Known about the structure:
Distance between the termini: 85 Å
Number of helices: 3
Order of helices and strands: HHH
Number of strands: 0
Largest sheet: none
Amino acid sequence: xxxxxxxxxxxxxxxxxxxxxxxxxxxxxxxxxxxxxxxxxxxxxxxxxxxxxxxxxxxxxxxxxxxxxxxxxxxxxxxxxxxxxxxxxxxxxxxxxxxxxxxxxxx
Length: 107
């Protein structure tokens, strides 16, 4: 066999170490990402379910607050019985007034 150049032997050894390090890092990355990748559908479904719940709850809260505002506005108009305009507005039922206010405040 031919004598091997010490630099070539050292370079070959360093390449093997580098390859093993890269393989080990790739395996670490896969071990870290694999569970998330495998559970991505469940995570997405859980996030979507919570987003849907948040939409329903926020719509309910907005409706409650709009009705409360409508009742407050109705009380203001009901207290001013001297003005015929206010008396007319005081006769408006709460759901109608809530709809009017909601439409006025809608984006």
